[in-house]
Amino acid sequence: MRTILAAAAFSLAAFVVLAVPAQSIQPVALSAAQQASYVQALQAFRERRYAGAFARFSRLADAGHAPSAQIAMLMVQQGEPLFGSDWAATPGQQRRWNALLVNAARGRSDFLDHERGD
User: Is the pLDDT of residue 116 over 50?
Assistant: First the structure.
């Protein structure tokens, strides 16, 4: 049962990485070096090199990149069941990453409401 849950959770995490375009929830513009780091983080994640991916995602999240914050938070909160490892972030990092996600969601809310016809 645990294997099935872990596989389902991994599939969800992979969906987040593969299906959500970075531009759709990106509140800050990335420099060329940061964009390259984001691409490397995504590639590492896809190749299941999670430690390297987390290091890049957390640095980008600390710089204000909401998509990286989303994945880093997932890795911190669900590290053991999804990836077999625990990653840590300070309470301050977690608050800042969460704020990035909330602000990104608020920025998308007008678009989402319009799409539903509200």
Answer: no
Residue with tokens 């070096």: 33
What pLDDT score was predicted for residue 105?
86
Neighbours of 67 (CB within 10 A): 27
Which three-class secondary structure state does DSSP give residue 29? coil
Instruction: Report the alpha-carbon distance of residue 46 to residue 26 in Å, rounded.
Output: 20
Answer yes or no: is pLDDT of 94 > 60: yes
pLDDT (mean) for 66-87: 92
Give the residue from 27, 22, 25 showing the smallest Cα distance to 39: 22
Residues ≥6 apart with Cβ < 8 Å to 26: 65, 66, 67, 104
For helices 66-78 and 50-62, the axis angle rounded to 10 degrees is 130
Residues 6 or more apart from 50 whose CB is under 8 A from it?
A: 44, 75, 83, 85
